[in-house]
Amino acid sequence: MAFNKEVIEVIETKDVFTGDPKAPVTLMQFGEYENEECAKVNEVVKKILDNYKGKIKFNFRHFPLTKIHQRSQKAAEAAISAAQDGKFWEMHNALFANRRNLGTTTLKLHAKDAGVNRKQMLEELVNSTYGQNVHDDIAYGKKMGVTEIPAFFVNGVMVTAKPTVENLSKEIEAALKKVKPSKSASK
After folding, report:
1. For a tag site, which of 34, 131, 164, 171 has the least CB within 10 Å?
2. Pairing between β-strand 151-154 and β-strand 157-159 as defined by DSSP bridges
3. Three-class SS of residue 63?
4. Secondary structure in 3-state letters for 76-94
């Protein structure tokens, strides 16, 4: 007699975007929630998303530096847990806003503020339900050449300049020119 094990579909960070889903340019960041530079650059990303509405989509991938920030792994898991309720970005911003207070039970409170009301979230954090998803992000980051955070990619190409509004805009503009040939070039 075989037992049918219920397969639960997990929404992974590689599938979570903000911005226009059909945008020709993808801005991807590897980072973590306890890192001050990542928190600062989160504000830069918000400006970029405003400046390029309809032209870009943004994807955040987890790259916790657990030797420096012991709570960054659980914070990443909490964000993935929130994604299961469609609240990844709300949780993402709540985690950055509370980056100095990321204990496991506190993460549940941040989740509630972000609109996540699932009772099993604390249990998921304790059991590391989404731990492998975070490790998948780290492995992908390493494969892409990430050695420090925050790390940004525009359409899969690493941005080597400091992640400022100006520098990221320059990279996005260059990517937009590659995807949309100008009308004057076809004359």
Report:
1. 164
2. antiparallel
3. coil
4. HHHHHHHHCCCCHHHHHHH
